[in-house]
Amino acid sequence: ACTRDITERIAQDERTRQSEIRLSRAERIANLGSWDYYPDDGRLFWSDQMCGLHGLVPAEGPMDLELVRALHLKEDFRDLVNTVVHGHGSSEANYRIRRFDSGKIRTMRTRVEVKRDKDDRITRLSGASMDVTDQLATEEQLRRGQKHFRALVESNIVGIVFTARDGSVIEANEAFLSLLGYSANEQSGRAHVRT
């Protein structure tokens, strides 16, 4: 009977298992899902977190491509595929999905790395995706708030002044300047506001 020392193999298996645990924890903390697609045989693999972002229960093995396509809004899916197929190296794209569990539309941002063979054929696509719906909504609210504030400053309904810590005027609207008895032309030569 032959025997083999498998100590190193067991140690390697344990290192791999620990690495997978760390990756899964990092994805969960960052609310990020990872995926790999092999176009030659049409296999798509999603991490557990990627499944969760789409409202799916994680499962072993390749994803059902028809189910994945059905989760993506059609117009966004075409743009996503076009961006990825024509990209070299890495690219980034936003796309919308309809979550499987709730039916809610969410916006995802994915960063894709394209691997090609010597004939420039895509052999693998690897990516990381995250839900940016709330981030985009916050950015839009901020833009609207800034636009509203700028309109308020320019309307001259209220006096508004921006100063540096040393008291020098950065910007003042006409309403503020008129409270002090100045016009915009007169204020341009004055460096400080007395408080």
Summarize the entry for a quick read:
The protein has 195 residues and is α+β, with helices and mostly antiparallel strands. It is built from 7 helices and 7 strands. Strands 2-1-5-4-3 form a 5-stranded antiparallel beta sheet. A two-stranded antiparallel ribbon has the order 6-7.
Global structural class: alpha+beta
Estimate percent helicity.
Answer: 40-55%
Kindly report the oligomeric state of this protein.
Answer: single chain
Put simply, the count of helices is 7
Using only C-alpha atoms, the radius of gyration works out to 28 Å
Q: What are the main properties of this structure?
A:
195 residues, 7 helices, single chain, disordered C terminus, 43% helix, alpha+beta, five-stranded antiparallel sheet
Characterise this structure.
The longest helix has 24 residues, at 7-30. With 195 residues, the chain is of the alpha+beta class. The strands form 2 sheets. Strands 2-1-5-4-3 form a 5-stranded antiparallel beta sheet. Strand 3 (90-98) and strand 4 form a beta hairpin. The chain is built from 7 helices and 7 strands. The chain is elongated, with a radius of gyration of 28 Å. Helices cover 43% and strands 25% of the residues.
What is the element layout, followed by pairings?
Layout: H1 7-30, E1 32-38, E2 43-46, H2 48-53, H3 65-71, H4 74-86, E3 90-98, E4 105-116, E5 122-131, H5 133-155, E6 161-163, E7 169-172, H6 174-180, H7 184-187
